[in-house]
Every structure is written in C-alpha cells, then in structure tokens.
Amino acid sequence: MSSTVGQVIRCRAAVAWEAGKPLVMEEVEVAPPQANEVRVKILFTSLCHTDVYFWEAKGQNPLFPRIYGHEAGGIVESVGEGVTDLKPGDHVLPVFTGECKECAHCKSEESNMCDLLRINTDRGVMLNDGKSRFSINGKPIYHFVGTSTFSEYTVIHVGCLAKINPLAPLDKVCVLSCGISTGLGATLNVAKPAKGSTVAVFGLGAVGLAAAEGARIAGASRIIGVDLNSNRFEEAKKFGATEFVNPKDYNKPIQEVIAEMTNGGVDRSVECTGHIDAMISAFECVHDGWGVAVLVGVPHKDAVFKTHPMNLLNERTLKGTFFGNYKPRSDLPSVVEKYMSKVQRVVSTFNFPLSIRSRVMALVMTKIMH
Predict the structure, then answer these.
(1) What are the pLDDT digits (tens) for 209-264?
(2) What is the rounded CA–CA span in Å between residue 91 and residue 77?
(3) What is the mean pLDDT of residues 271-275?
(4) What is the Cα gyration radius of the chain?
(5) Which reaction(s) does the protein catalyse, per the Swiss-Prot or TrEMBL entry (predicted)?
C-alpha cells in the first residue's frame, strides 16, 4: 500500500488566483479522499477552451483561487470509504460530468444528464462535505467542474472517473475525457447519419474534427467542413472532410450556400463553435422533411436562438447534446477501446501466437507511450 494513503499530499499545481491573470505554479496540499471520492495522480492533462473561458471569467460567476483542468488521464492513488469499483493502480480518465448510476437520467438509455453529478461550473467544493480538498497554508483552493487536473494530485468523485484499459497510452487517450468524445458522440449517438448521407460540420477545432471523424465512421458520402479559417481544411481531410466552405467567401448566408450544394440541404449537421449565428446556420442548412441539426457548442449566456417557426414545421429537427450523449463510466471505456482496436489490428496482421500476443501488445503500447 502506498505510504501516502490517508495522508495529506504536497504537490505542484497551476493555481489561478485571479480572473485572466497568469496561472502560478504553487505547492498545494491535497487532502485524502472522503466517502465516494478518489485521489488520482494526474500523469497527463491537456488544455481545453472551456478552461480558458472560465479562467477569463467573462460573463460567469468568478470563483478564485481555483485549479482548472478537466481533460486528463491518471492513476488511482487511494480511494475513500464506499468506493468499490476502483482501487489503487487503476488507470482512469476524469470527466467533468458524472454518472451516479442510480438517478432517472443514469437509468435512462436516452440521457447522460446525471442528477447528482452533471457539470456545475459554480461549485468549487466536494459534494460530500461542501469543502475543498486543496489548500495552501490552510487557505482553501477551489475545484473546477469536479476534476481540477492542473494539479499533480487531485480528488474526484468516483462517479466522475472512467476506469480504462491499462494498456491505453494516457498521453493519447486523455483527450477522450472531453472534446473528442463530445464531437464523436454528437455525430454517432445523436445525429446518427446513415451510410451515404451528407453531413455538415460547423467549426473544425478538436471537437469539430471528432464530429467529422464520426461522420466518416458512419459512412457519410459527403462531409462538408465549415470554418472561418481556410487553413483548417487540410487537417480536416485527415478526419474525413470531403469539402470545405468559408462563410467569408460568400455574400449570402452560408445555409443557403450549403442548400445549393446539396440539392436542398444536408441530411445532418453538427455545430461545434458555440457561436449563435453558426447554430442558426447549422439548423437552417439541413434538408426539410428529415434533416437533423445537433448543437454542441456552448453559446454566450445572453445569446438567443432565432429562426422562423416554419423551419421546424417543415420537419427539420433540432437537437442538443452534452458530452456526445456518452455516459462517462459506462461508455467511455468503449471509446478508448475504439482507439486501442487499431493497435490490435496491426498486431493481428503479423499472426503472432495467442500465447505471446498480449506481450506483443504491451511492447507496442510501451513504444507508443514513450
């Protein structure tokens, strides 16, 4: 058993003391996990635009000092009372939303909006006792969306951790804990394009590229990338995009351009920017009768979605999604396995005997991780 179990851990963390001010590397104290909590050693973390958005605190309730970060991978250091499905040494992905497995949403096959653990950007403390597990010289440092992965160690509710294949390289799959799964799931789980269909993806950042990849996996015949930055198209091709349009190149609404390109509109669209005009365009560019638009991006709190009611009455469907409709604990491990299956296919082509195939897999993954 680790000598740190039950003890306060001192480690480094990037602390945001004020809105918009540079993060400061500090030594913080990380308390042991309480009931239904897990302390995790973070090995890899990435920067998501959501971290920047709340660090700037423009239009949100400012809560400082705070440790940001929510897209990461790590290893369980210790567990609190009542935690039975994780143990020290398990590889996990922290997720900004959770799955208690007991509420109506968790039991529903249609929802991942857990009543207990859905994202709450205003809460900076743990649910168990309303206190932070981070401190500096006795001063509490607030959590962010229940994860706070810009720290070498963090404490997370067990319902916000997905246990994954220990062979999966954490430096690669850490991005599956937010943006990539959000975009991929928006297409595969919500838009559900049929094979041979047409799909428009608005915004070709990480989330949009994942949405395009989802359309490619689904077998879409045309995947139209829409972005104000034309330089993004070359990268988007690698993820399945077949065409590109830049709204700045046209003197009419981009939804009209797309409708002309596709004989009345695309079958599915996925909006990944959070800009209200892009949201409206994504909805109005789908074909009447069967078109489905899925909104992924988070708009400004004062934004208003406006469209003519006839666009709905003409049998266009507008949907929203949260984390790609994936349930973190139940579904995220399988998303990791989609990544791992590519490595497995490579190994299987060499026809290694079953007796050594697992060792070969381990060697391959070690090379990938280093």
Answers:
(1) 999 999 999 999 999 999 999 999 999 999 999 999 999 999 999 999 999 999 99
(2) 10
(3) 95
(4) 22
(5) a primary alcohol + NAD(+) = an aldehyde + NADH + H(+); a secondary alcohol + NAD(+) = a ketone + NADH + H(+)
- Amino acid at position 88, single letter: P
What residue ranges define each of the domains in the chain, with the CATH number in brackets?
9-177+327-369 (3.90.180.10), 183-322 (3.40.50.720)
Q: Which of 26, 5, 14, 21 is nearest to 136 (CA)?
A: 26
The strand pair at 66-67 and 161-163 is best described as unpaired
Residue 22 is given by DSSP the state: P
Nearest residue to 39 via CA among 205, 193, 172, 152: 152
Q: What's the pLDDT band for 171 if we cut at 50, 70, 90? A: very high
Helix (H, G, I), strand (E, B) or coil at 261: helix
CA distance 97 to 163: 15
User: Rounded to 5 degrees, what are φ and ψ at 65?
Assistant: -70, 155
In the prediction, which pLDDT does 343 show?
Answer: 58
Q: What are phi and psi of 269, to 5 degrees?
A: -135, 150
- Which pLDDT score is estimated for 357? 46
Q: For residue 213, give the nearest of 92, 332, 339, 297 by alpha carbon.
A: 339
Q: Distance between CA 15 and CA 17 in Å, rounded?
A: 6
At position 326, the amino acid (one-letter code) is Y
Q: How far apart are CA 223 and CA 225, in angstroms?
A: 6
Nearest to 60 by CA among 142, 11, 120, 149: 120
φ, ψ at 192 (rounded to 5°):
50, 60
Task: Report the mean per-residue pLDDT for the chain.
Answer: 92
Task: Single out the residue of 216, 226, 227, 162 nearest to residue 187, CA to CA.
Answer: 216
Mean pLDDT, residues 299-326: 94
Residue in this structure with the two tokens 């239009």, named with its chain if needed: 59
Using left for φ > 0, alpha for ψ between -120 and 50, and beta otherwise, residue 89 falls in: left
| CA-to-CA dists, residue 183 to 89, 231, 239, 348, 359, angstroms | 30, 20, 12, 29, 33
Count of CB atoms situated within 10 Å of the CB of 235 = 12
* Residues 6 or more apart in contact with residue 249 via CB below 8 angstroms: none
